[in-house]
């Protein structure tokens, strides 16, 4: 477990995200420029993005990853203040069989428009409460306790389109050569992660710098 792991208990996620955003904003001013080759890598060649004029930010992650759980509150704070020209999305990675089922959990919540609200609670359920949400029935039961229609959750989880989403996520992980999670790709050009940035807390400032760098390198319209 990382030294900068966050205790989710005792603070509401909204308050926690607000406090973290204030800390991250201050730390971004305090840090010097991120070092290429250590804190981030430049992809050569770059990979075309799917967001057109918007700068694309992708987090490769898994609900089953404890480091992703530690990073989650910092990421939540960062995404709450996205500039209008930045698009953020998450792609689940499947390094082990349980993570395939957890990818289905993510895509089910995303399809219901509940991924932003409930992702922090999924991490807490798995890593703090020991709930085996990779087991479909346990996930369906848990989702019902969060106010979701259990039948709709089950139908989406087992839907025909789910296999296509899973296969697409696997393809993207191969395209971006994902070897660790969490891993963040900025505009198909830059790669960073908490391991590269040094800590979970330092990563958002590096992400912000890379967004600015990507913006500066885009052709002027």
Short structural description:
With 221 residues, the protein is of the alpha+beta class. It has helices at 13-30, 66-79, 97-111, 115-127, 136-145, 150-157, 160-175, 194-197, 203-217; strands at 41-42, 55-61, 86-92, 183-186, 190-192. It has a five-stranded mixed beta sheet, sandwiched between helices.
Topology:
Elements: H1 13-30, E1 41-42, E2 55-61, H2 66-79, E3 86-92, H3 97-111, H4 115-127, H5 136-145, H6 150-157, H7 160-175, E4 183-186, E5 190-192, H8 194-197, H9 203-217
Parallel strand pairs: 2-3
Antiparallel strand pairs: 1-5, 2-4, 4-5
What does this structure look like?
With 221 residues, this protein is α+β, with helices and mostly antiparallel strands. The protein is built from 9 helices and 5 strands. It has helices at 13-30, 66-79, 97-111, 115-127, 136-145, 150-157, 160-175, 194-197, 203-217; strands spanning 41-42, 55-61, 86-92, 183-186, 190-192. The protein has a 5-stranded mixed sheet with strand order 1-5-4-2-3, with helices on both faces. Helix 2 (66-79) links the parallel strand 2 (55-61) and strand 3. Helix 3 runs antiparallel to helix 4 (115-127). The longest helix has 18 residues, at 13-30. The termini are far apart. Residues 1-11 have low confidence and may be disordered.
Give the count of helical stretches.
9
* Ends apart, CA distance between termini: 45 Å
Give Rg in angstroms: 17 Å
In spatial order, strands of the major sheet run 1-5-4-2-3
The amount of helix comes to 40-55%
Structural class: alpha+beta
Question: Count of DSSP E strands?
Answer: 5
Question: Helix-strand pattern, N to C?
Answer: HEEHEHHHHHEEHH
**Unreliable spans:** 1-11
The outline comes out as globular
The main sheet comes to:
5 strands, mixed
How confident overall, as mean pLDDT?
A: 89
Query: What proportion strand?
Result: 5-15%
């Amino acid at each position: 477990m990382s030294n900068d792991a966050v205790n989710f208990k005792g603070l509401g996620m909204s308050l926690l995200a607000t406090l973290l955003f204030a800390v991250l904003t201050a730390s971004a001013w305090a840090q010097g420029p991120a070092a290429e080759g250590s804190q981030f890598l430049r992809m050569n060649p770059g990979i075309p993005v799917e967001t057109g004029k918007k700068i694309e930010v992708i987090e490769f992650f898994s609900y089953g990853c404890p480091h992703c759980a530690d990073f989650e509150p910092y990421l939540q704070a960062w995404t709450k203040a996205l500039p209008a020209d930045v698009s953020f999305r998450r792609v689940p990675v499947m390094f082990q069989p349980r993570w395939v089922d957890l990818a289905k959990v993510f895509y089910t919540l995303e399809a219901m428009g509940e991924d932003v609200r409930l992702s922090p609670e999924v991490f807490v359920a798995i890593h703090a409460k020991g709930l085996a949400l990779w087991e479909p029935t346990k996930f369906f039961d848990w989702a019902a306790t969060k106010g979701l229609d259990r039948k709709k959750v089950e139908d989406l989880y087992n839907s025909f389109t789910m296999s296509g989403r899973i296969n697409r996520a696997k393809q993207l992980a191969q395209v971006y050569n994902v070897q660790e999670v969490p891993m963040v790709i900025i505009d198909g050009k830059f790669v960073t992660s908490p391991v590269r940035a040094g800590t979970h807390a330092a990563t958002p400032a590096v992400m912000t710098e890379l967004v600015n760098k990507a913006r500066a390198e885009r052709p002027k319209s």
